[in-house]
């Protein structure tokens, strides 16, 4: 085949999913333009009674939590010296970095005065949980960028800075674990100030611990899902020898989290809300069944963990239950006290889906450009039509 024919055969050919992603990103840009020209009221259903919607509940709380696989896996490899997991560190760090980057974009959209987002850097309020979250998210995003930077330096042909970052990787990972522990738990602390507003099925003085441990479990589930989706998209095999042990860790984290949730419900005397089977009780049971009981029950059996379909299914349930938990805390559990019923507008949904689509597009671009996987960039000729 001549050079022209080779180039033609490797040219990207858009398909169904790439078309959907393009439409979502275009929709995101349109809604963003309206939001910044006409205000939040033009594109959201937010109000003084219910000021936080899915841009906080999904984009922020879920985005940060699902990126927890990055600090978990880097700690496993670089602090506990389990080098066998190293082949999936780079895609996990990339997923984490993109997650945090798009969380920041979502936060810019949600803030009433986004041009003041830099104020946390200059105007310090160390007594504020939001101040601590802002600093930790900024610093950890920087840590993730540094952890990923050797990939870029290698691609640019600059081995010296790549080697320099590699020498600093252990202190960077330690710093990343500390920052993640702080802000993953502090996101739960945001709701400690509303004990009379947050429904007792979700409120607990242990919310910071709940948020932290559930993020570890769901973050591991996200690593498994990312590996599966990458394999489907780029014709790669599923690293079962690496993902099956991770699933065991996910079971432990979710099991501990589930016991803490049951203990909190007992302390709050909230079993009656479940027995009444009202709106909040139904949402709790759905969340707890999908996010704790089913993944823990299924992944406790090695025969099921060793099956790719069951493994991915268990990870998907863990992630889905996690998303439901964050939405239940930020929306379901707050609606009764607010005296209003919140339903996200079409604009809010388009923005959230558009951010997810943009993250997937950037991830795919990075995989095709940089050495994310051990065998190098994925060429167009090896791609699935998406």
Mind explaining what this structure looks like?
The N terminus and C terminus are likely disordered. It is globular and about 60 Å long. With 386 residues, the protein is mainly alpha-helical.
Class computed from helices, strands and strand pairing: mainly alpha
Estimate the helix proportion, in percent: over 70%
> Which CATH C-level class is it?
Mainly Alpha
CATH topology: Formate dehydrogenase/DMSO reductase fold
> What is the overall pLDDT average?
92
The CATH architecture can be named as Up-down Bundle
The biggest beta sheet is recorded as: none
Strand content: under 5%
Could you name the key traits of this structure?
mainly alpha; Formate dehydrogenase/DMSO reductase fold; 386 residues; 17 helices; disordered C terminus; 0% strand
């Amino acid at each position: 085949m001549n050079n022209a024919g080779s180039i033609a055969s490797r040219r990207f050919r858009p398909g169904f999913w790439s078309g959907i992603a393009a439409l979502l990103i275009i929709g995101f840009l349109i809604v963003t333009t309206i939001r910044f020209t006409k205000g939040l009221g033009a594109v959201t259903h937010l109000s003084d009674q219910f000021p936080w919607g899915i841009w906080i509940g999904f984009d922020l709380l879920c985005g940060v939590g699902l990126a927890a696989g990055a600090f978990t896996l880097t700690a496993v490899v670089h602090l506990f010296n389990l080098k066998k997991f190293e082949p999936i560190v780079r895609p996990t760090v990339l997923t984490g970095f993109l997650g945090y980057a798009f969380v920041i974009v979502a936060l810019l959209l949600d803030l009433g005065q986004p041009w003041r987002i830099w104020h946390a850097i200059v105007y310090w309020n160390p007594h504020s949980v939001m101040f601590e979250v802002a600093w930790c998210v900024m610093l950890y995003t920087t840590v993730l960028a540094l952890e990923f930077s050797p990939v870029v330096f290698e691609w640019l042909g600059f081995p010296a800075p790549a080697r320099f970052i590699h020498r600093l990787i252990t202190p960077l990972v330690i710093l990343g674990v500390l920052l993640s522990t702080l802000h993953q738990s502090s996101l739960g602390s945001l709701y400690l100030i509303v004990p009379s507003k947050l429904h007792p099925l979700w409120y607990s003085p242990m919310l910071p611990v709940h948020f932290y441990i559930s993020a570890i479990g769901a973050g591991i589930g996200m690593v498994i899902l990312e590996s599966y989706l990458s394999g489907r998209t780029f014709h790669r095999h599923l690293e079962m020898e690496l993902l099956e042990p991770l699933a065991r860790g996910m079971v432990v984290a979710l099991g501990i989290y589930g016991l803490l949730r049951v203990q909190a419900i007992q302390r709050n005397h909230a079993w009656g809300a479940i027995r009444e089977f009202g709106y909040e009780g139904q949402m709790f049971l759905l969340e707890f069944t999908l996010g704790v009981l089913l993944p823990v029950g299924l992944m406790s059996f090695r025969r099921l963990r060793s099956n790719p379909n069951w493994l991915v299914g268990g990870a998907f349930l863990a992630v889905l239950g996690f998303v439901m938990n964050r939405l239940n805390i930020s929306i379901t559990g707050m609606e009764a006290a607010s005296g209003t019923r919140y339903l996200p507008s079409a604009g809010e949904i388009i923005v959230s889906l558009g951010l997810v689509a943009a993250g997937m597009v950037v991830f795919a671009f990075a995989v095709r450009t940089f050495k994310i996987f051990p065998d190098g960039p994925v060429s167009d000729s090896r791609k699935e039509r998406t």
